[in-house]
Design brief:
The protein is mainly α. The protein has 2 helices and no strands.
């Protein structure tokens, strides 16, 4: 009779190298440069900083991809802004219906 595979004791478990999950070590993520005065990072905004260096409105725009971490608009701002407005409109109509 022939062997079908290695014996049970011969198996070696190997871990793939370089696939470990990044560890946070309790530090905040790298983000927008701090303005130092507690104001929103977005251009021409004088509101107070709430999250990630932005006021609530600009933080939502940042998460949607309309502005960069530095507060500058992205290159395809007009196209994304149209999608953002449609998204906001859908939110308003679904909240009224509920």
């Amino acid at each position: 009779m022939g062997k079908t595979g290695p014996a049970q004791g011969d198996k070696k478990e190997t871990k793939p190298q370089g696939t470990a999950a990044p560890q946070n070590h309790g530090h905040a993520p790298k983000g927008a440069p701090a303005t130092g005065d507690g104001r929103c990072t977005a251009k021409a905004c004088k509101s107070g900083e709430k999250r990630f260096g932005f006021c609530d409105e600009h933080f939502e725009q940042f998460k949607f991809g309309l502005i960069k971490r530095t507060g500058e608009p992205v290159s395809d701002y007009e196209k994304k802004f149209e999608h953002y407005q449609a998204y906001r409109q859908r939110l308003v109509t679904t909240r009224k219906a509920a």
